[in-house]
Each structure stands twice: as C-alpha cells, then as structure tokens.
Amino acid sequence: MVNRINGGWVFILSIAAIAGCSKLEPAAPADEAILDGPIAGLSGDELARFLRGDVAFNDEVFHAGNGLGPVFVATRCASCHAGDGPGHPFTTLTRFGQWDASGNQYIGQGGPQLQDRALPGIQPEQLPPGAPFARFLPPLNTGLGLLDAVSDADLLAWADEHDADGDGISGRPNWVERRPYSPLRPGAVEQDGRVIGRFGRKASAYDLLQQTATAYNQDIGVVSLFEPIDPWTREEQDPEVPTATIHDVVFYLLTLKAPIQRDANDPNVVAGEQVFNTIGCAKCHRPELTTGPSPIAALAHKTFRPYTDLLLHDMGPGLDDGYTEGTALTSEWRTPALWGLGLFPDSQGGQYFLMHDGRAHSIEEAIGLHGGEGQQARDAFNALGTNERSALIAFLNSL
Amino acid sequence: MRQAVIIGALIAACGATAQVDSTLLLLPATEDTMAHRRMNMDAVYNRPFLTFDKMPVSVGGYVEAKVEHLGTDGVSDGFSFALQRMTLFVASSIHQRIKFLSELELEEGGRELSIEFAALDMQFDPLLNLRGGIVMNPIGAFNQNHDGPNWEFNDRPLEAVRLLPATWSNVGFGLYGKRSTAQWTFAYEAYLTNGFDASIISNSEDRTFLPATKANPDRFTESFNGVPLLTAKVAVRHQAIGEIGLSTMGGVYNRFQQDGLVLDKRRRVDVVAIDMNSRVRSWGTAFVGEWAWVLVDVPDTYTQQYGSRQHGGFLDIVQPLRQARMLGFENVVVNVAVRLEYVDHNVGRFRETGGDIGDEVFAIVPAISFRPASGTVFRLNYRHMRERDLLGNPPSLTGGFQFGFASYF
Q1: Is residue B18 part of a domain?
Q2: A301 neighbors A293 (Cβ within 8 angstroms)
Q3: Given CB atoms, is A27 within the 8 Å cutoff of chain B?
Q4: Contact A302, A290 (CB under 8 A)
Q5: Residue A114: its chain B contacts at CB < 8 A?
Q6: Interface contact flag, B399 A124, Cβ < 8 Å
Q7: Which of A17, A63, A347 sits opposite B393 (nearest CB)?
C-alpha cells in the first residue's frame, strides 16, 4: 500500500508540475527592453496580419530550393534585422554606381547593389573597377509606420536648404523617383515628377513597399511582381515570393511598435536630454514628430519621439564616400532616428556598429564622426565636462 | 531560483533508496549472431521481440508520446500533446547465421513513415559479419541506440537531432564484428552507403544542418552524387569500466558533375564522434555521453550563415533512487537524471569583424523517470534551454515541463 502511494506521487507531481508549468517558464522580457512587438491599438484582424508578416519576415528562409539568389547578400529578412534592430557588418550592403543626381550609371553592371554572395557553383558579383560605392548597414525596423505617416508638409516645413536662419543647419528632402507600384500617400508633394523619399540611409526609398520589394530583390535575390528583374540574369522572371507575402511584410513593418524609452525619469537621463537640446543635437535629431492620417487607425494622428527630421544633411568630407542615391549629394545622409539606440547592441552581437556603415563602435565615436552640419554639435560635445558628457550618453542609451 | 527550489522539491519527493534498472540492460532480445557481450552497436538486436512458437519470425516495436508546456521568452503555445513516434521491428532468422531485421518508424502521428533499418546479416565469423540493405550508420552511440524506452528524457539529444541526423540510415553494405576476452570486448563496424546531399548547406534551418538530407525521398534508391559515404566505428568495452567508441563518417555531399559536365569541385562532409557509457557499480550511477565534430567544405563565396565547422554533445547522468514493488508492479525503478547538452552550429569568426559567430544552444534537463517494467518508462523532464542567434545576441530562453512515456511492445 505504501509503495502504491509512493509510486502515485510520481504521477501526482507530474500532473501538478504540468498544471503549474507556465509559472516555471522563462518570463517575457520587459516591453521596453526589446525592439519587436506590435504597436498598441491594432484590431484582431490587424494583429493576425502582423503575425503573418512577422513569420514571413523572421522565419521564412530562402535557399536554393525556393528562390535564393543565385547571387544574394542575405538568406532572409531577419538576417539583416535581428530582433528588428539594426544590422551587423555580416550583412552590410554595398551600393555602387551613382555619384550625382543623374542616376545610377552601373545598372547594367549589377548596380545599384552588390550581391557579394552566391550559391555554390555560381560566382558572386564583383565591384566594377572605378565604380563609386558606399557600405550601408541595415537600419532599425521599428516605428517605421509612424515615420511613414508624417506628412510631406511637415518635412518641407523643417527643411532649410539654404540655411535661411543661419544656424548652420540646412536639411532638405531627397527628391526621388516613385516606383509605379508605390501609391502616393495622402497630401504627397511632387516636384518635377519626383516625390520625397524618407527610408534608407540616403532617404532614397519612397515607402515601405518599395523598401520591402527592393530588399527581397537586391538582398535575397528573390523576384516579385513588384521587382521582377533577377539581379543575376538581369531578366524578368516569374515571382518567387507571393504578392500577398510582400504586403504582409509591409504591414508588419508599418505596425512594429516604436522603441520605448527606459529610465526616462532618471535625473542623469533628464540632465542628458537637456544637454542634447543645448548643444544642438536636436536641430537635426528632431525629438518629436506627429503623424497625419493613416488607413491604420493605430498610426493616425500620433505624437512620437524618434529623434529624426527625415531630411538630408551634409555630414562633411569624413562621411563622404563618393556614392549617392536620388538627388542627395554624396556627403548628405538622412538623419537616422535615435530611438532604440541603447538596445542596438542586443541586435548587433553585443556591441555597437553605428553610422551608415557601422564604422563607429560607441556613441562617443559616432558623435566624433559628425562633420559638416554636425560639426557644431560635435565641437560642443567635445567641450562638455565629464558629468555633462556622461549625462548625454546616459540619455542616448535610454532611448 | 524559484524554479530551482521547485525542481529540487520534486526530486526530493521521490525517495532515495533505489538502484538503477539493471534489467533494462538485460532485455529479452532476439539472439544476435554473436551475442557474447552486448555493446552499443548491438542495439538493433537488443530489443524485446515477440516470437510465435517455432516460427522464425519475431516482431516488436515501441511507442513514444509526450505532453509538454514550453515557453520561450514568455511566449507559450500552451499544452502540446504528441505521439512522437511508433516503431515496428520485424526480425527473421533465415538460417542460424543469416538474419534479417527491419525497423519501420511512423513519426508525427503517422505523417512521416520511414524505413530506418532493413538489413540482412550473414555471419562468417564473430569477427566477420556481412551486413547489407538499409543500415544504421554507426556514428556516435545514439544513432544506433535511439529507442525511446532506453532513455530517461522525452526529447532526443540536441546533438543527435541538430548536429547529426538521428536515426541516420542509408542503403549500403559493410562489415562488422567483435571479439571478447575475459574483461575486454572489441568491436568494429564499417559501411559504404549512399550519403549526404547539398541540402546540408541549403535548407530552411538557415544553417549547416546534416539532418536536412533525411528529407530527400530518393536517398534510398540512388546516390546524390555517385560517391559513397564511408562510416566506420571502433569500440572497446571493459566489463567493469564501460564502453568507449570512436567513429567517423565522411563523403562528398555536393553534385559536382552532371551529364559529364563538371559543376563544382568535390566538397566533403566529415564527422568524427566519440561516445561512452559507464556505470559506477557501488552507486549504480550511469553515465552516457557523446560528442561530435562536423567539418563541411562550404564554398568561400557562399554565406557564413552556413558554418564549415560544428560541434556538440550531451552527457546523461542517471541515478537510481528506488527499486521496489509499487502500484502492483513487482520491480519498479525510480531514477533521477540530468542531461547536459550543447551544440555550436557554427564554429568560427565573422570575416567582416573577426567576432565570434554565435548560433549555439545549451540545455540542461533534469528528469525523474518511473519504470514499472524494464521496457516501459514514464518520465517527467524540465527543459531549460538557452539559444543564441548567429550574431551572438542575448539568448532566447526556453523552459517548461515535459511528461511522457515510452514503451516497447
């Protein structure tokens, strides 16, 4: 009888353990500690679509059997955006072939992007001798829907192309050609048949549909209804990724939540924010933006804090790689959003790879690389005392 | 901490005076043609079979099922019930020295049906046996000794299912044999079989993944590239200490030519594994472990997503707690056990940064097993697993309980 009871304990404990199991499983990280996750306020249908996009973005792997390459850079979207964060030099993109607003002169020679990897038996592309090029670290994914919903009118209002106010900061939009498949957003402004780009290191992508379809094509070597030219054969091919999947991924990118600031009330962080404004960082890294109307209710008429103005700024000769896109000058770069900055190492293998090509390995080093319109702020940073500098870094890490 | 306390309490609650289920090692089995000292290589025959009077055919099998509730970083899909596999054995003694044994496995509720083993054995001498058909490649120990009822854990070792293709079998021929002295037994196996294909570096796992070849439905009917895979193992057992085995497997995995045209150079995959099992007689504590190294010739122009070097292994420690009559069963054995396992799917450094490539997983799995009969085991496991992505970002944490059973029938 005793043995029966002892033996029964095994089963009772097993059942009890399973029943209480969820309490013994790893807890979810705090929402502000991770970059991924949907924006608040999505409906059930929208969440389902978000999840479809999530799976396509993070889990769908391309290989020889389903359309990878044969020349490519990455095997899936998440290769370049681990945890929806910025990329790592492992998947740095090499763009080449354009030095002014006249367009890319190397489209017939593999431009605008080098596919430097290839399936076995295939030779990857080589950079044409003499072609201007720049390396682009894949940017952060989060909060893109909010940036997408900022009106063109706001961007134009912030622009000061000829520095009329004399503050040393100009800022102008990148006027780019719109892909035929990209619909105009409400209130879109056109100039000489061009529209305002806002995504990518040079703000050369008009919208996330262009960004997504181009990334499938140029990064993974996968053709779609939108971008049907195979980068290797340079011939039109049947779609290798369904149109619905592209739309789901676009929706996913639109509805990823904005990074959440940590320790916002920490006195050091509060002091650092003050320093950020005082030394002029906020002139380009505009703290607060507001969205206009959006077909996704959760994105419409929201105020958010990305720390960017989505405009091009001349960053000086040190960051002039001699390559450009759209109507940007080779020394001009779109102000990157700073939100999520403190979480970048969690997507970059535990270290920082900052600036457009990841050349900076700390926030201080990144600030030190600011030239051109960023020179004043850099000089002001260098003149800061230890406490103020520490506070500024704490603030930036809290974003 | 709370998890550790609860797990400790579960373990403590099970008493402390039993010993290992020694009968498991002496399962009634069909006599093999050289049944002197059983070693890991004999696992295919060391199984309980049903025999029918004087018929030369015997049958058997095992079934394995589990329920689990696992979560990763706070996200769980809830309860999951699974019939992991049901395997049927059919053995036949055609002659005193000619035998046939087959093993059919239905996995995932019957969605996958595979022939894991179907080989004819002919003995010329205990040291010289010919085996042909679908043979189980003798790499490591688990591949041949994979029956669920033999293990205290619901899941197969990560090393066996991610690094090596667990239950990896192929069509081919080879030799095996063993010889014993008073204390020692020496054994060898060597086979030439069909081998791997290019999917090991092009698959939906997004990593070098030898098990991807198992999805090729043609591998039992033709070679992918015309080059045989050589698998060989030597093992030695001391009666008092235990067994250690050293095995290797290598061949060409890519289709380097087709229709007379050379497409690429011959690219090799090579595996080396070491395995051991031992028992401390005074305590009855059993140790079973295996470690494997994988080398793959991945083209430099491909992507480092697919690693050219991998390694990993596992160590199971099984401590018998109690052996007694329980629940009306005469000889119940209760064990506590723990499995430590690690796999690095991509050993190396990024060309771009010189930084360490991640893509590795570590798990610790404490367990309690309850064996009402030697061929039947109920087991409760808690899995704690930490997995890093390719870039080495903070690991995802997976944890949760698994409860299941496995039984020969």
Answers
A1: no
A2: yes
A3: yes
A4: yes
A5: none
A6: no
A7: A347
Distance from the A87 Cα atom to the nearest Cα atom in chain B, whole angstroms: 10
* d(CA A235, nearest CA chain B) in Å: 22
Whether a cis peptide bond, with omega within 30° of 0, leads into A112 is yes
- Positions in chain A whose pLDDT score sits under 50: 1-3
Q: In this structure, what token pair is assigned to residue A32?
A: 């502000």
Chain A (58-97) residues lying within 8 Å, Cβ to Cβ, of chain B: 61, 63-65, 68, 72, 74-76, 79, 82-83, 88-90, 92
Task: Report the residue of chain A nearest B3, measured CA to CA.
Answer: A24
Inter-chain contact A27–B74, Cβ cutoff 8 Å?
yes
- The three-state secondary structure class of A260 is coil
- A26 CB within 8 Å of a chain B CB: yes
Residue B278 lies in a domain: yes
B371: closest chain A residue by CA: A7
Q: What range defines the domain where residue B209 resides?
A: 28-313
Residues B400, B382: contact at Cβ < 8 Å? yes
**B206 interaction partners in chain A (CB closer than 8 Å):** 61, 63, 75-76, 79
- 409 residues of chain B, pLDDT tens digit each: 334 433 343 333 333 332 232 233 233 333 333 344 578 888 777 777 767 666 778 889 999 999 999 999 999 888 889 899 999 999 888 888 999 999 998 877 777 788 899 999 999 999 999 999 999 999 999 999 999 999 999 999 999 999 999 899 999 999 999 999 989 999 999 999 999 999 999 999 999 999 999 999 888 999 999 999 999 999 999 999 999 999 999 999 999 998 889 889 999 999 999 999 999 999 999 999 999 999 999 999 999 999 999 999 999 999 999 999 988 899 999 999 999 999 999 999 999 999 999 999 999 999 999 999 989 999 999 999 999 999 999 999 999 999 999 999 9
Could you give the count of Cα atoms lying within 13 Å of B145 in the half-sphere of its Cβ?
21
Pair B187, B154: CB distance under 8 Å? no
pLDDT of residue A11: 64
Model confidence over B13-27: pLDDT tens digits?
333 332 232 233 233
Residue range B300-341, pLDDT digits in tens: 999 999 999 999 999 999 999 999 998 889 999 999 999 999
Nearest to B385 by CA among B369, B405, B401, B372: B401
Judged by CB atoms within 8 Å, which residues 308-367 of A form the interface with B?
346-351
For the residues of B109-169, what is the DSSP string, one character each?
GGTEEEEEEEEEEEEEETTEEEEEEEEE---TTTTTS--GGG-S-SSPPHIIIIIS-SS-E
Amino acid at A89: P
Provide the number of CB pairs (under 8 Å) joining chain A to chain B: 163
Per the domain annotation, does B368 fall within a domain? no
Question: Least CB-CB distance to A82: which of B203, B263, B393?
Answer: B393
Kindly determine whether residue A82 and residue B389, on different chains, have CB atoms separated by under 8 Å: yes
**Which pLDDT score, from 0 to 100, does residue B14 have?**
34
What is the maximum alpha-carbon separation in chain B? Answer: 69
Of A3, A79, A122, the CB nearest to B326: A3
Answer yes or no: is B181 within a domain: yes
- As for how many domains chain B has, the answer is 1
* CB burial readout B229-240, b (16+ within 10 A) else e: bbbbbebbbeee
Residue type, B70: L
With contact defined as beta carbons under 8 Å apart, do B100 and B120 qualify? yes
DSSP state of A184: P
Q: What Å distances lie between residue B46 and A15, A184, B24, B134, CA to CA?
A: 32, 71, 10, 18
CB contact under 8 A, A120 and B267: yes
**Least CB–CB distance from A117: residue in B303, B350, B368:** B303
Interface test with A, best of B254, B303, B360, B384 (most A CBs within 10 A): B303
